[in-house]
């Protein structure tokens, strides 16, 4: 449960935070309102004339809304957005945010997005919403990648939540690929499941692919993450996985006590 509203927010710098007003009459901040404050803080990094990677998910949605608001108010100009999903594309178009793609803009100034897990080294798990491939392409092409999460997403190690580690695969002979994935991860007690959509059929990504969710019983260990990443990507039929290693520049964490900022190579 959120604390009573208090304009005290824990940050790593002294820059002001434009705090949206609490929606409840009791002046308390809900988790969604805390996410919105973190998203507003992330948008402080946005400057006019930037090419922006627009993230996908409940927290990133607030950031896209804020960018649209600042454009409408004339506080931002000449912004070009590159959406990480069809859903974000629709949202951005509704806000009149000019859009483009990586073909036209191979270098992205800044991306803002959420994450499913963040470890102490700022490695991420993403893709439980199904947009991992476009997210990794766009955020990997970014000069700066700002991640917004609530404090429940902070883990001691990758897969620390014991929830899914997503892998996007081609539909062709998906059972074969899923079994190969399970064998690669067998040493970690892996169970590989095809992700299902609302109608009980295989979930299809924006790219027309399937997702295999891998559930691990054992910790992969920090030193093994790169090895595991390479082993997964070497499998024919695998498109991409949801480990975003050494990609985040800054993580903004929303919690009951406010917002904390962690930067890469920072001890805070």
From TrEMBL:
<dbReference type="GO" id="GO:0009052">
    <property type="term" value="P:pentose-phosphate shunt, non-oxidative branch"/>
</dbReference>
<dbReference type="Pfam" id="PF06026">
    <property type="entry name" value="Rib_5-P_isom_A"/>
</dbReference>
<dbReference type="InterPro" id="IPR037171">
    <property type="entry name" value="NagB/RpiA_transferase-like"/>
</dbReference>
<dbReference type="InterPro" id="IPR020672">
    <property type="entry name" value="Ribose5P_isomerase_typA_subgr"/>
</dbReference>
<dbReference type="GO" id="GO:0004751">
    <property type="term" value="F:ribose-5-phosphate isomerase activity"/>
</dbReference>
<dbReference type="InterPro" id="IPR050262">
    <property type="entry name" value="Ribose-5P_isomerase"/>
</dbReference>
<keyword id="KW-0413">Isomerase</keyword>
<comment type="similarity">
    <text>Belongs to the ribose 5-phosphate isomerase family.</text>
</comment>
<dbReference type="InterPro" id="IPR004788">
    <property type="entry name" value="Ribose5P_isomerase_type_A"/>
</dbReference>
<protein>
    <recommendedName>
        <fullName>ribose-5-phosphate isomerase</fullName>
        <ecNumber>5.3.1.6</ecNumber>
    </recommendedName>
</protein>
<comment type="pathway">
    <text>Carbohydrate degradation; pentose phosphate pathway; D-ribose 5-phosphate from D-ribulose 5-phosphate (non-oxidative stage): step 1/1.</text>
</comment>
């Amino acid at each position: 449960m959120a604390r009573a509203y208090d304009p005290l927010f824990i940050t790593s710098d002294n820059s002001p935070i434009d705090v949206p007003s609490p929606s409840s009459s009791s002046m308390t901040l809900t988790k969604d309102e805390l996410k919105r404050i973190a998203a507003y803080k992330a948008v402080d990094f946005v400057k006019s004339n930037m090419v922006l990677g627009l993230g996908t998910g409940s927290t990133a949605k607030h950031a896209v809304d804020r960018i649209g608001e600042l454009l409408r108010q004339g506080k931002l100009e000449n912004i070009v957005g590159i959406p990480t999903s069809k859903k974000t594309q629709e949202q951005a178009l509704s806000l009149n945010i000019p859009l483009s793609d990586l073909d036209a803009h191979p270098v992205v100034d800044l991306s803002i997005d959420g994450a499913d897990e963040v470890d102490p080294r700022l490695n991420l798990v993403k893709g439980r919403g199904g947009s991992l491939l476009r997210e990794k392409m766009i955020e990997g092409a970014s000069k700066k990648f700002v991640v917004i999460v609530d404090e429940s997403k902070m883990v001691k190690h990758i897969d620390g939540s014991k929830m899914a580690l997503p892998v996007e695969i081609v539909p062709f002979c998906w059972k074969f690929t899923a079994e190969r994935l399970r064998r690669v991860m067998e040493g970690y007690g892996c169970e590989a499941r095809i992700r299902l959509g609302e109608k009980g059929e295989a979930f299809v990504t924006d790219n027309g692919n399937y997702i295999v969710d891998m559930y691990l019983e054992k910790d992969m260990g920090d030193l093994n993450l790169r090895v595991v990443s390479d082993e997964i990507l070497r499998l024919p039929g695998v498109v991409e996985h949801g480990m975003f290693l050494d990609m985040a520049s800054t993580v903004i964490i929303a919690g009951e006590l406010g917002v904390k900022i962690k930067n890469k190579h920072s001890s805070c």
